[in-house]
Amino acid sequence: MGSGLESVTPGLIALLAVTGLAAGFIDAVVGGGGLLQLPVTLLIPGLSPMQALATNKMGSVFGTATSAVTFYGRVRPDLRTALPMALVALVAAGAGAAVAAALPAAVFKPIIVVVLVAVLLFTVLRPGMGQLTALRHAGARHYGLAVALGGVIGFYDGIMGPGTGSFLIIGLVSVLGYSFLAASAKAKIVNLATNIGALAVFSAHGSVLWGLGLVLGISNMAGGYIGARTAVARGSAFIRVVFFAVVSVLIVKLGWDVLTGR
């Protein structure tokens, strides 16, 4: 299939570019852009699910890199927490991507739906959570929990992907005690690592369509930049609202997949 663009019409390329822009914006604010981007990527004629997932990862790498840099320049997240998380998440995402080829995602979907519902209820019932940073742990325990979060969520990103940024944010807020803004800034660094880890494995298997990935990548970069600047300007309250919306959509999407056996 070469670049992956031979069978794609100009209208479909335009749709991919607009979708990539929107997905980059959502990912930059709270994660979950894959909910929008992956289904549209699957519209490409002759594209296998593995190729769509791999090419989607390439676009996401561009977007998360842009939003991570933008967040860092304005929020200055603590790299002592973010970098160990990112390193472990990168390795775990690679392992998850390797498993993805052999183990159907349907195995995990019912568990993920239950976890998401619990997360949403937990966040709704604690309206003050995430408004300000109030770390719950210190020293080795803080870093140990951060690394554990990176490993578990990184593995999930390699296998499935959608909602990874949201999981990272809620973990950083609820487990470690960061504000939504600080958590979002750190989540972008970790999410960039998980995308790179998964993309490396997919590339080794020859699943990435580079031309198509470049279209998604450029549009993701634009969306990631706009989204990161918006999140910084609007603060934790705005991120919390978007978080509710994205997690609700994710619950509906995965719940429907479970009910219909997809």
TrEMBL record:
Transmembrane helix keyword on record: yes
Primary location class: membrane
Compartments, record wording: Cell membrane
Membrane topology designation: Multi-pass membrane protein
KW Transcription (keyword) present: no
Pfam entry (one): TauE
Family: Belongs to the 4-toluene sulfonate uptake permease (TSUP) (TC 2.A.102) family.
Protein known as: Probable membrane transporter protein
PANTHER family recorded: MEMBRANE TRANSPORTER PROTEIN YFCA-RELATED, TRANSMEMBRANE PROTEIN YFCA
GO cellular component, one term: plasma membrane
Keywords from the named record: Cell membrane, Membrane, Transmembrane, Transmembrane helix, Transport
Superkingdom of the organism of origin: Bacteria
TM segment ranges: 12-38, 58-75, 82-105, 111-128, 140-159, 165-184, 196-218, 238-256
